[in-house]
Amino acid sequence: MSHITVCARFRPLSSKERRDHGDSVSVQSLDSETFIFKDEKEEDFTFSFDRVFYQGSEQVDVYEFLALPIVRDAVNAINGTIITYGQTGAGKTYSMEGPSILECDQQKKGLLPRVVDGLFQCIKSSDEATKYTIKLSMVEIYMEKVRDLFDLLKDNIQIKESKVHGILLSGVTEVSILDSTEALHSLSRGIANRAVGETQMNMASSRSHCVYIFTVQQEFPKDKRIRTGKLILVDLAGSEKVEKTGAEGKLLDEAKTINKSLSALGNVINALTCSPQGRANHIPYRDSKLTRILQDALGGNSRTALLCCCSPSPSNASESLSTLRFGARAKHIKASPRVSHNDDKYTKKHGTQSPSKDGSCERILNKLTEKLDIEDVNLLEELFILEGIFSYPNSVEDLELTLEDVALRTISSLQEALEELTLIVEELKIENKALKFRLAAAERVDTLNKKAGGNTSFLHKFNFPAVFNFGDSNSDTGGLVAGIGDRLDPPNGQIFFKRPAGRFCDGRLIIDFLMDAMDLPFLNPYLDSIGAPTFRKGCNFAAAGSTVLPASANAVSPFSFGIQVAQFMRFKIRVLQLLEKGRKFQKYIPQEDSFQKGLYMFDIGQNDLAGAFYSKSLDQILASIPTILVEFETGIQELYDQGARNFWIHNTGPLGCLTQNIAKFGTDPSKLDELGCVSGHNQAARLFNLQLQALCKKFQGQHPDAKVIHVDIYTIKYNLIANYSRYGFEHPLMACCGYGGLPLNYDSRVPCGKTKVVNGTEITAKGCSDSTEYVNWDGIHYSEAANQNG
Ligand SMILES: Nc1ncnc2c1ncn2[C@@H]1O[C@H](COP(=O)(O)OP(=O)(O)OP(=O)(O)O)[C@@H](O)[C@H]1O
What is the ipTM of this complex? Predict the structure, then answer.
């Protein structure tokens, strides 16, 4: 059992402290471990720590005493934790990072860069045959939420406990680091992200706890054995008292949360030190995220060092005193880091190391033969060998003790097995869900095939050189965002692209899956000119909010169907001009015959109908359908005239099942159908689709050299909503990314990912924890999981 290493560090006086109290300090050094501290009432307190770093101490002294032994251990698969504690401005970050991670002279470098160097040096000087990998994660705990500093979208990381690996941060980003320079760049990236988070959350880093996790994995090529050591560094939030900060409102909440987690830390330390054995019945690790993450460090499975950072100035005496008291209390925790083979139990009971197997083995078993059946003795011998117990019992009492040990080991291995089983069950659940999706997708393809008169094979059979797409947000891959310079915010795009990708979705759209099915790359939007996008395999003219009819002045998108067709004309003209200029453009543009051999896809009309409901009666809307379709026909005829021959036309989806429409038009239950969708909207969509289908037939009849496929997306989507649980969904109508909670989680004033002030309160439309459970993404668009089924 070793104690936690506790050190105190006094930073130099700040200029303000000098102004207020001159050179006077509250600390009087006795030696390198002991000092006298004078509080505000001039009362003296003597403190002893493992080491005291006074004002003139160097960063390297702190590293070598406090961190180096832990770094060496981490490389030998023993976990270690280094914590800096103290009031704001006491020198925690200076000790941890130094003045700057990347640009800083050797002398001022903090613990982190030194730890990184130390890890790589230890690896260099170790056995060459052993293969090492180092991974780094960085998280920040703010207001009891753990956010990933390498992926700000992961802003609520869950803490899990595994019997084998201890405390784990589920799904946290782990960055592989190959050398010190790379590690420092990653650290600096994480620290910069911390600043981004600070601004986003209107906070200061001193109000969050920052946790750096280095995982060092050793692989022994001889026997393929793997060992892992984890080194955690924690820069705690400032420990000052709430009253002193004069905090109010959100600041007060923050201060209380910090205080709560720091006092939870204090409670854990008290619980760990309150019984004579250093063990209390219940250790309240679960009371805060901080103590949960530090559970292994404090509870024994880690070498731990605590650096209590203090101001030496009398003006901060009371804060420094409380920091020092915290350190003194922590000094009494005992920790026993886990090593590969642990003889603790035997040592505890016998006060010595276990005797060797040789010699005593025969003697003990002979003795047992006198008391037990020989078969039982043989069985016991076998069991001991199997269990790797090398201490042989020499009395029946000893035998009982040993059996107790076996039972304990069995229980712990059963617990491990249970843990593994739980993980397997989790994985199987996910796999099951994926299989359900695939099965459902296969069924959808089958239905689609039937609806399209056996024509989905059309997609596979033909080797389309390019695809030209026209439509609205259902197939917009970034057109509107590029065209009007708008911005989509996270969590849009979170599932597949890991960032907003121009799509009003958490991931891919139906068109992305169709492109995949045709072995073609995702379509670039015509309006996006940044980064020399390639249009070799086609071009997407779709823009969210677009209508078939010309856009009105206040329309979301000015790029109505007619404009999209005009854009196509220009696109074609430019392509032909560039092709004439020679080969150098070929990489970026379609070949000439692609315009005739390519596939022309359409998904538009939804906004003409949905938008009209805000100002027209159902009858008026139904009456306007032929006009919409005349405009559509004009567009596809123009494309035909330009050489288009392969037409893939989606009809419009069940508008009445979109969360937005239910929220606005479905407040009267008599207006809803049996699924809870708005009947009028769906009626309009169905009538539109019937007439669209007739148009497709007519167009096909007029152009026998063309291939016109009408795809019944309405039925596919409606079926998905009606049978949502069969397809692995939990919520058919509620939006994943929205505001307001049950039943619809939708507020038209706050689009997904945005924050708005409503009636004086700031509200944010956030994403749900698992979007694969939702058919609807943001109230208006389908989730990637639903699109995959589509
Ligand atoms: N040992 C030291 N030597 C020189 N300057 C120091 C030392 N320790 C701290 N400082 C300086 O004191 C100031 C406050 O230190 P620092 O930012 O590290 O405090 P902190 O405890 O991390 O505060 P917070 O909780 O707000 O993050 C900084 O300007 C830092 O450069």
Answer: 0.97
